[in-house]
Specification:
The chain has 20 helices and nine strands. By secondary structure, the protein is of the alpha+beta class. The structure holds protoporphyrin IX containing FE and 2-acetamido-2-deoxy-beta-D-glucopyranose (2 copies). Its cofactor is heme.
């Protein structure tokens, strides 16, 4: 019988708690405590518990302020991971104000991380120390159960080769071999939109279909059956589940070793594994591109966008001496409409679909101003905040200004693809796909806000556009748009 059961028995048998009874109870409690505390195993446990409560993979970094209100074991995790119904970037943005520093350190359970919040600090570290920020933090939910993909792996020799291969496959010289995959998708989209005529609709499933087909063709040389394909839906569902957990601060046990020790990982762990098994390689990242394109459709469908739309239409025609056919034909092959280039850059800047990017790990000690960020520190860029940094972009940083990047050739216009050594290898290809899809949509249709009051309005807020605040990538709220053909006869010549 345990001491606790003895106590219960004791309480039950005595009708009244006399002073004598209370004395005996107190004695038993004291004795139990003594036995527990004097036990060397207990002492070891308590010492390690105390250590666990504050220990991190690297010690506190001098001269970089710490985020307030860290708790034992959890550190600063409590307000993160969507637990306050806000995404991590939004929370990160609040701390520098309290600390009056654009860079600070936080404790994610047992993981010490540095968070950079301004464009120039991020550029200094991610670009200036490109080769020192080349590794990735361990994510336990994934590391224990699955092999890492490229984006989550340290830059070991095999991964270096893998990144090289990815960069080659996604690089400009190979693009011509993708045109025959991309162009039919855009024709398919145009045909579908034309058949809808003036009704309003959600373009999301169609764009999703294009990205999905591209991925399938690249990997398996097949295409899916259509927009409502069950298989497509199931796959996309599994992808969403993955990016829900990927590099996110939602699951406390990924960061707190004692939780992994105390609670066996069978529920959430299996969820991750089950979803991952169904996932196609890199499809979650490809999916980002899709979300991005929807964000751009969003702007074009607001009343403010109407004037810009005809300006863009004229600019596209002007770039091809008003030859519509040439403009259509070249859409995937070159980027000669500067206004459209500026538009997609501004779109990716303004609606930061990867609000806190993907974390990195320092590969060696980094001297940074008057301190040293040690090897093995997690580095987080607050891309959402830096993309709206008035010190970098000027006072209009909080406005969507499609002409912002006209005449600018900065190699790092925004941080939505990351920066430095592990920057997204598909950035240029994604840009080109976005460019071409918008070019062809604008050439073929006038995009309007639906008149029907039942149609869902777009949310064009730079932070609130996403329906999701927990996961790695934003998930734009769904909305309806109406497409009216500019010249149906001409469009039909493109559908052959
Ligand atoms: C608009 C579309 C996209 C966005 C916004 C995006 C964003 C990102 C970001 C923020 C990173 C982390 C970069 C860093 O740590 O500095 C990344 C990495 C990566 N992306 Fe993309 N991505 C997009 C499209 C794609 C596509 C279409 C593919 C593949 C076909 C792709 C493949 C990858 C890979 C393989 C990595 C890992 C690179 C590495 O860790 O070395 N991405 N992406
Ligand atoms: C990358 O290397 C660091 C040591 O520099 C290690 O702490 C970390 O867990 C490694 N990350 C992965 C994903 O293996
Ligand atoms: C960030 O969180 C806010 C809530 O504070 C939410 O409205 C917004 O959609 C989120 N943004 C992204 C990119 O996830």
């Amino acid at each position: 019988m345990s001491s606790f059961e003895t106590l219960l028995e004791f309480g039950r048998s005595s009708a009244v708690l006399s002073p004598g009874t209370i004395g005996v109870v107190a004695l038993i409690i004291l004795w139990t405590l003594y036995v527990l505390i004097s036990n060397p195993v207990t002492i070891k446990f308590l010492t390690s518990l105390q250590k666990q409560a504050t220990q991190t993979q690297v010690p506190r970094i001098p001269k970089i302020p710490e985020a307030p209100d860290a708790l034992p074991f959890v550190g600063n995790l409590m307000p993160l991971g969507g637990r306050l119904n806000e995404n991590d970037s939004t929370i990160y943005s609040q701390w520098p104000k309290k600390l009056s520093s654009d860079i600070f350190q936080i404790r994610l359970g047992s993981e010490r991380a540095v968070v950079a919040n301004t464009f120039s600090t991020i550029k200094d570290l991610w670009v200036g120390h490109s080769n020192d920020l080349i590794d990735k933090p361990q994510q336990h939910g994934f590391a224990e159960k699955l092999e890492y993909d490229l984006s989550g792996a340290n830059m070991t020799e095999p991964i270096r080769r893998c990144r090289k291969a990815a960069t080659r496959a996604l690089g400009k010289p190979l693009w011509p071999t993708y045109y025959h995959l991309l162009e039919p998708s855009s024709v398919y989209l145009t045909r579908e939109l034309l058949s809808k005529d003036d009704e309003y609709m959600d373009i999301y499933p169609y764009l999703r279909h294009i990205v999905f087909d591209l991925a399938l063709s690249l990997t398996y040389g097949t295409v899916s059956n259509g927009v409502d394909d069950e298989f497509t839906d199931a796959l996309v569902e599994s992808i969403n589940q993955i990016s829900f957990f990927r590099a996110s601060t939602q699951r406390l046990r990924d960061y707190i070793p004692i939780l992994r020790f105390l609670i066996p990982d069978f529920v959430s762990g299996n969820l991750v594994v089950a979803a991952e098994k169904r996932r196609q390689k890199y499809l979650d990242v490809i999916f980002d591109a899709l979300k991005k394109r929807i964000a751009s459709g969003e702007q074009l469908s607001t009343p403010i966008g109407q004037g810009f739309q005809s300006e863009l239409y004229d600019a596209i025609l002007a770039a091809y001496s008003r030859n519509r056919d040439k403009a259509w034909e070249m859409a995937f092959r070159e980027e000669s409409v500067e206004l459209l280039v500026s538009l997609y850059k501004e779109t990716l800047r303004f609606w930061t679909i990867t609000p806190y990017s993907l974390p990195r790990t320092t590969f060696k000690d980094i001297s940074y101003y008057n301190t040293v960020i040690p090897k093995g520190t997690t580095m987080i860029m607050n891309a959402q905040q830096a993309n709206h940094d008035t010190a970098w972009y000027g006072d209009d940083a909080l406005q969507f200004r499609p002409t912002r990047f006209m005449g600018k050739t900065d190699s790092l216009p925004h941080l939505t693809f990351g920066a430095g050594s592990r920057i997204c290898p598909a950035a240029a290809l994604s840009n080109r796909i976005i460019y071409a899809l918008i070019a062809r949509l604008v050439l073929a249709f006038k995009i309007n806000e639906p008149k029907d009051p039942r149609a869902r309005k777009a949310n064009a807020d730079m932070l609130d556009f996403s329906a999701e605040y927990k996961s790695l990538v934003a998930l734009p709220r769904r909305f309806d748009v109406s497409f009216s053909p500019r010249d149906e006869g001409w469009i039909r010549t493109k559908l052959l």
